[in-house]
Structures are given as structure tokens and as C-alpha cells.
Write a structure and sequence with these properties.
By secondary structure, the chain is mainly beta. An eleven-stranded mixed β-sheet has the order 1-2-4-6-8-10-12-14-16-18-20, with no helix packed on it. Strands 3-5-7-9-11-13-15-17 form an eight-stranded parallel β-sheet, with no helix packed on it. A three-stranded parallel β-sheet has the order 19-21-22, with no helix packed on it. The termini are far apart. 32% of the residues are buried.
Length: 330
Amino acid sequence: MSPARLLLLLLPLLSSLLLRPASAVLCHPEDKEVLLRIKSALNNPYLLASWNPDTDCCYWYCLKCHYKTHRVISLFFLASNLPGQFPSAIGDLTYLQDLTLHKLSNFSGPIPKSLTKLKYLNSLTLDWLNLTGPIPSFLGQLKNLTYLNLSFNKLTGGIPVSLSTIPRLGYVGLDRNQLTGKIPASLANLKGNNLYLILSHNSLSGELPATFAGVDFGKLDLSRNRLQGDASLVFGRSKSTYYIDISRNLFEFNLSKAEFNVSLTYLDMNHNKIYGSIPKAMAGLELQYLNVSYNQLCGEIPVGGRLQGFDYSAYFHNRCLCGAPLDSCK
């Protein structure tokens, strides 16, 4: 092929290269500056080695940019020994929609107020860290939040009522902390779809809010607290709850009078002061898990459904419960 003909074939390619903008950098300069401040605040950890100021930040690890605006919309630090306290500069990534800090064993300090600047945030996961101090009431300013997970930390104090003012909050995970006080009645105002309320492994006390009788939880876990009184209000024939765990509390109510919805598949009530008998209607439930041990139940375990399919340990240590899989009634 002659040089002239080769030049003609390459001319369109050369033209496209010459006409391309001098800079094809996607990263927004404001976001890049903030990200480098975060890296510096964390003492330039190996996890953020790709955060090189000479490269496009939209290609850095641990983050995601919007495909059109190229603003940073997701930041995620996962399973690392990342040292230091929560960098307040994260609040300057004002277009963030998802912030996930998970299983950072050396990450500590309180939750910074700068997070209130994240007006577009819809998912906040700060779990398996060493966060301390109270759950700040200013989290109620994050009005686009639908998912909140603060589990496995060292947070103290009560549950702020401000969380109930977040209009579409549907997942609240505050388990495995050191929370105290009563559960706010205002949490009944949560309106998220398929509502999850996970408060287990704390030191919460008092009775359940009466307002919970009108809440259709998807999943409710109140286990391993110091709650007392009547917990039967969380049950209801018209509800769609599939998971209820109220085990290891001080609840005291008559199980005979409880009404259950057909969608319930997981029910754990062990280690309480629940009395009465097991309702016959429970034989009609498609339960995958059941534990009513260590209570004050009496009477014969209803025959039918899946109730005889559970091990005896699901029923033992009650006052006078009998029938398969326990000893026969006399």
C-alpha cells in the first residue's frame, strides 16, 4: 500500500484525535479536593492508594461518580483496618447518595454534624466501627434517607425522636450498641415500605409504645433488651410482618389472646414471662422458625401445621407445656 493511500485511510482517525477536547477528565474539581482532604485526614492509608491527585478521581477505588454529572454519589470503605476518626470532610461531598463505612476496626469517634450537608443522601451505613457518643438528633435533617444502619458500634444514650421525622425512612438498624431509655412512640410514624426496625442487643427499657399496635412492620427485632409489659400489640391478623424477635426481655402477656398474621414465618419469644397457652391458630402458620422456651406457658401444644416439626428446645422450660415434641400431656 502506498504511503499516500495509507495517509488517506488514517486521516479520519487522526482528525478525531485532533478534534478531541484537550481534557477528558470527568472528576469534578471540588469533589477531588474534598477526597484528597479525606485521604490526608486518614493519614494516606493503603486502602486509598489509588487516590492519586494526578489521575481522574472518578476512576479511584471506593467511590462512584454519577454517569452524567460526574459528581461523587457513592463512597464506601469496606473491611479494613483504616485508622483515625470519622473525617468531617465527608460532609463536603454534597452530592453523595450512598455512604457506607463497614467493618473498619480502628475507626472511631462521634458522628460528625457535617453529615447534615448531605441533602441527597438516601443510604447511610456506619456499622462494625467503634463510633462513640449518642445517636445525634441532627440525623433527622437527612430528609431523603431511606436506609439507616448504625449497628455494631458503641453508641450510647437514647433513640432520638428526630428519626421519625424522616419521611421515607424504611430501615432503622441500631442493634449491638449501648442504647438506653424507652423506645420513642414517634417511631410509629415511620412510613417507609416494608419497614425494618432492628433494636436488638442494647439496654432499652420500659414498655413498648401503644402506637406500635398500628404499625405494620416487615421485620421487628427487639431481642436482648430490658423491655417489659405487653408485646402482643406487635401481632395482628391484618398485618404483613414476617419476622418478629422479642426474645430475652421481660415481656409479660397472655399468648392465648394473641392474633397472628398468615405471613409470619419467624417468631422468637424465648426468655420472657409470657403465660397462657399456644393458640390453635398458630398451627395454621407457615413458620420456618419458632422458639417459645423459657416462659410460663401451659397446656397442650396444638397439633398440626409445623408445630411438631420443631425440636423440643423450641418449647422447653415452660411452666406446664406438654404434647409433642415435649412429653405427652397427663
